[in-house]
Amino acid sequence: MPERTLAEQVAEFAVGNPFDCLPEEVIDSVRKRVLDILGICVAASSLDTSAAIRRYAVHQGGRSEAHAVGVHEAMPAGLAGLVNGTLAHSLDYDDTHLPSVLHPSASVVPAGLAAAEAHGRDGRELIAAIACGLEVCVRLGMAGYDEESGRSIFFEHGQHATSICGTLGAAVATALLAGLDEEGVASALGLAASMGSGVIEANRTGGTVKRMHCGWAAHAGLVATDLVGLGFTGPPTVLEGRFGFFQAWLHGEFFPKWITEGLGERWEVPKIFFKPYPANHFTHTAVDAAIAMRRKGVDVDRIVRLELGVPEAIVRTLGEPIAVKRNPSTGYMAQFSGPYAVAAGLLGGSGLGVGLDDYTDELANDPVRQSIMAKVDVVADPACSAIFPAQFPSVLRATLDDGDEIVEAVMTTRGGPDRPLSYDELSVKFSDNAGRHLTDDAASAVRHLVAHLEDLPSVEVLFEAMSFEMPSADDYRTQE
Which domains are assigned to the chain? Predict the structure, then answer.
């Protein structure tokens, strides 16, 4: 009997793990991730890019299959996934897996919600599909993690592993919800591998394109599944083949053990880090270090120099080009700035430490914050480099006007297994996000439904509970 390909093994795992086979910690983790993503989608609804993606989706027309956040009318499932995935990733508030260094839920959860609604699946089926999609997504990302160098090979090539692997994770989740068998799931992977994409340059120098990466991944996963249902097939060796996924993206340098070792026995899903702050995850320990200094009573006016030590691999993300990172022109660019993370931690504060209101265009251009950012150097720290990417550590050094130096080292990332967010803390995050457009009663109803997600008769019930409407396509049209 020939050896089963990686896609065939992944498909066997996915089909073989319905709800009744899932560990309770995986089920609980999925519930929390659905709640987290829905809250982020609501909070992101007022962004200009969110308006643009809603307008694009509504203008396409098509069958009424699934709902997008902020749109009353149902739309084709692929477009609902596009909208919700874009919103889910737009605030850089979505979860992160280590060491794959990707954001799995922003693609997989929106794709799963759209597919479940389109196919009339219940909460148990939704949970199982999302769990398997997330697991596949992060394991594919891990296959591009080089233990020896401690770096993601995807990122070394300028590729956004989040959307590239997210497309395949979305395809697995949607294929299960469409009722495909092992062969069908493997083919969905085969098609999705030709659809995954994402270039990460926007992290360095700006632009809002990254916001739609997870929406495109969710959309592509849904389309791949639909096309398999209509007769398209994918190559069984799509992952490891001579011209397959890992050859195309990583030039053949990948580690298949991360995909199959312990698959179905050792779950990665509960290990995915929740984000307490709405910014690039690399910045979070810098925020924590600055908050620690603030709580110790450090006088910002006495600081003459700040040095932010981070893993060598992320200096280019947080500190290059330094002129741009010290002068982010928008709140969105500030989310990827090490100097701004320090300023936010020293001056801001809301929610779980800093919140959405600390990342605005106005504050990015605030003279006080700019004066702090001008003092920040971002450097490689050997101790941080040794830990990365198992954690995203930072060491912040402040030199005062009398020559004294104050040091705060934060070596573990909040929201992960070593420093988990409690359910109450996640509820605070959800309430802060959802409360921007939902009433207290609506937000409470959504929390209750997601807390009992396995009892949900349909996804439509969930969207009914969180129904609100942003400007419609007709409203946009009158402005053009």
Answer: 6-271 (1.10.4100.10), 281-410 (3.30.1330.120)
